[in-house]
Amino acid sequence: MGNVFNFISDSTKKYGLQDCKIAGIYYDDPAKTNMARYAVGFLIEKDHILRFEGLKDIIKKDFQMLDLKRTKTIVAHFPIRAGSLSYALSAIKVYPAFKKRVHFCLQSGAVEIYHGQKVIATHFPLENLDQFRPQ
Fold first, then answer.
1. Ranges of the chain with pLDDT below 50
2. H/E segment holding residue 7
3. Helix or strand (DSSP H, E) at 12
4. What global pTM score does this model have?
């Protein structure tokens, strides 16, 4: 995964979108597989629309676009305190905690949004589930 994140980080810098958050959709429960399917990219938010529109055709050469609808989610925030180890610890801690506390059943992919080097926000969708399944 490190190489994928490096590619995305380098790409956002190349496009002048380095302030975009990196995000991943993880389609499988990490407790049930060693080879989880995922899609990783960066978020284009309202502040980025004007810059993005001018670069859209160039970006499409490197990335596929996925337009996510506003969706109600359950979210957990996990601090990044141990460098790259925090990313693994987040998955190990967050998924089982949701299953145990809210009897949550993963019906689609979970979305992780990386807020710089500070926090991982893991979103478990409660609606629009098809957009969070493998495309």
1. none
2. helix 2-15
3. helix 2-15
4. 0.85
